[in-house]
C-alpha cells in the first residue's frame, strides 16, 4: 500500500486511459461471442484484444488479497430452495440465467467467499440470517461462522409489494416463511 504502481497494474476508475488488462479463461467462442470466465466485467464491456497466455508472462509470482486465501465456506441448499429455483426457472422470469445448475453455481461461488461485511460479522459473529439480490431474485441464507457453512434457505422473485430486503419487516416475514417450511434459525 502506498507504493507507486504502473498505470496498468491498478484498477483505478480515474485512469487517463480507461483500458484495463486482465488474465481470463476463454471458455468458448460461438459466432461473434466470446464466453469468458474468471473476470469481473459488466455485460456489454468491449474486449479490445485477446492474446494467448504464454508461460513467459510468469503468473507464478502474482499476488492476491489475503481474503482470497482464507478458507472458503461450504454452501448448501435447503431442499425446498432447489424446488423454488426450479419453479422460478420454469416461469422464465430471470434475465440472466436459464439453467438451475448455472444459477446454483453462481450462488455457491458468491457465498463461498463470505460476502458479509466486517460490521455484520461483528454484530452476528456466530450464526445469522442474511440476504442478497441476484438477477431478479432475493436469496436468503444462514451463515454459520463456526462450522464454515452457508445454507440457502429461501429464494423468491423480487416484488415491489414485499418488504424491502433486510429491513425489519422483511426479517419478520422471512422468518415466518421459514417457520412454515419447518426451518428454525
* Distance, first to last CA: 41 Å
CATH topology tier name of the largest domain: YaeB-like fold
For the record, the CATH class of the largest domain is: Alpha Beta
* Helix and strand pattern: EEEHHHEEEH
Q: How many separate domains make up the residues?
A: 2
Shape: globular
- The CATH architecture of the largest domain is 2-Layer Sandwich
Fraction in beta strands: 15-25%
**Biggest sheet, open or closed, and with what strands and sense?**
4 strands, mixed
Going by helix content, strand content and strand pairing, the class is alpha+beta
| Largest sheet, spatial ordering of strands | 3-6-5-4
Helix content: 10-25%
The whole-number mean of residue pLDDT values reads 80
Number of helices: 4
Rg, nearest Å: 20 Å
CATH homologous superfamily grouping of the largest domain = RelE-like
Number of strands: 6
Query: Which residue ranges are poorly predicted, with pLDDT under 50 across at least 5 consecutive positions?
Result: none
Amino acid at each position: 500500500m502506498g507504493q507507486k504502481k504502473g498505470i496498468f497494474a491498478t484498477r483505478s476508475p480515474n485512469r487517463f486511459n480507461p483500458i484495463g488488462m486482465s488474465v481470463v479463461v476463454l471458455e468458448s467462442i460461438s459466432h461473434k461471442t466470446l464466453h469468458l470466465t474468471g473476470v469481473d466485467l459488466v455485460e456489454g464491456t468491449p474486449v479490445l484484444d485477446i492474446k494467448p497466455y504464454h508461460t513467459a508472462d510468469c503468473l507464478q509470482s502474482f499476488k492476491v488479497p489475503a481474503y482470497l486465501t482464507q478458507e472458503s465456506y461450504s454452501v448448501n441448499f435447503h431442499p425446498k430452495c432447489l424446488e423454488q429455483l426450479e419453479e422460478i426457472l420454469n416461469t422464465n422470469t430471470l434475465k440472466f440465467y436459464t439453467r438451475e445448475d448455472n444459477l446454483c453455481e453462481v450462488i455457491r461461488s458468491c457465498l463461498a467467499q463470505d460476502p458479509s461485511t466486517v460490521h455484520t460479522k461483528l454484530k452476528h459473529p456466530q450464526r445469522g440470517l442474511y440476504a442478497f439480490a441476484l438477477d431478479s431474485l432475493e436469496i436468503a441464507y444462514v451463515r454459520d461462522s463456526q462450522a464454515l457453512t452457508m445454507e440457502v434457505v429461501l429464494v423468491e422473485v423480487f416484488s415491489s409489494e414485499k418488504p424491502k430486503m433486510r429491513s425489519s419487516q422483511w426479517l419478520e416475514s422471512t422468518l415466518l416463511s421459514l417457520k412454515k417450511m419447518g426451518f428454525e434459525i
